[in-house]
Write a structure and sequence with these properties.
Blueprint: H1 7-12, H2 18-49, H3 56-63, H4 68-78, H5 83-94, H6 97-100, H7 113-120, H8 124-130, H9 140-167, H10 177-190, H11 197-213, H12 218-247
Helix pairs in contact: 2-3, 2-4, 2-9, 3-9, 4-5, 7-9, 11-12
Protein name: Branched-chain amino acid exporter BrnF
Membrane topology: Multi-pass membrane protein
Family: Belongs to the AzlC family.
Length: about 260
């Protein structure tokens, strides 16, 4: 099997002109922009309808750039939520980005400001776009241009939403439900496999416990309870896998409860 080219070989390989790299990055962002722009519009409308200053929409899109978290922050800010609750909520929702860094090809981005921006703009869409792309096609200019374009769609969408909401004679009734609908869709997407159904049930249990016990701080309490329940589920699952492995006398593949001894003979 031929070995993949080393970084040194990749560096010696001829690269396309910088303008072509930027154009490729803009092309990478087009499909993502179809989904990001409407969400940005929703953010702008939500900011205005929540009675917050219009400039909060571009400020969130530039200063945070975290997709669904920005929509969540609008509701939290409008409700005068304590800063501790906001911080823990944002941390819990965006914690997955910590693991993105392990496989995102940020090493292909030039050191300094370009790499710092690429890490900052490592949203779900950028991760999905570049983590599966062949490394030989990845260049610093291409990735940074693509991520910058994705953020531009979000900022422009927010400004369009602000303009639309300002021009409307009356607020759109029920528009704030857009945030709930977004998270419902994300939840349904996460529970397509049976493996994740227990997590959804644990989330519902955590929410119920928080609403009943501490309704004045239900969001913060639910996040803490859900984290504890997930840790407990992980511990139980890990112990169960070890138990299954020991029952198989250490034979390879016996951690699969559906396997049979004959398969490993």
């Amino acid at each position: 099997m031929p070995r993949p080219p080393s970084d040194a070989a990749a560096a010696r390989a001829p690269r396309p002109p910088r303008r072509a790299e930027i154009a490729a990055g803009l092309g990478d962002s087009l499909g993502v922009g179809i989904g990001i722009l409407p969400l940005g519009v929703a953010l702008g409308v939500l900011v205005v309808q929540a009675g917050l200053p219009w400039w909060l929409a571009p400020a969130l899109s530039i200063g945070i750039f975290a997709g669904s978290v920005e929509l969540l922050l609008v509701s939290l800010i409008a409700a005068a939520t304590p800063l501790v609750t906001i911080a823990i909520t944002v941390f819990a929702v965006n914690f997955r980005h910590v693991f993105y860094a392990f496989s995102f090809p940020v090493s292909r981005v030039r050191r300094g400001l370009p790499r710092a921006y690429s890490v900052y703009a490592m949203i779900d869409e950028a991760y999905a776009t570049y983590v599966l792309m062949d490394e030989s096609r990845l260049t610093s200019a291409r990735m940074v241009a693509g991520q910058l374009a994705m953020q531009t769609y979000w900022v422009v969408g927010g400004l369009i939403g602000v303009a639309l909401a300002t021009a409307l004679p009356e607020p759109i009734e029920g528009f704030e439900f857009a945030l709930v609908a977004l998270f419902v869709v994300m939840t349904l997407d996460a529970v397509r496999t049976r493996r994740e159904v227990p997590s959804a049930l644990l989330a519902a249990l955590a929410a119920a416990i928080a609403i009943v016990t501490v309704p004045e701080s239900a969001l913060l309490a639910a996040l803490l309870v859900f984290t504890a329940l997930l840790a407990g589920r992980y511990a139980v699952t890990r112990a169960r896998r070890k138990s299954v492995g020991s029952d198989g006398d250490g034979l390879p593949g016996t951690d699969d409860p559906t396997g049979t001894a004959e398969e490993h003979a």
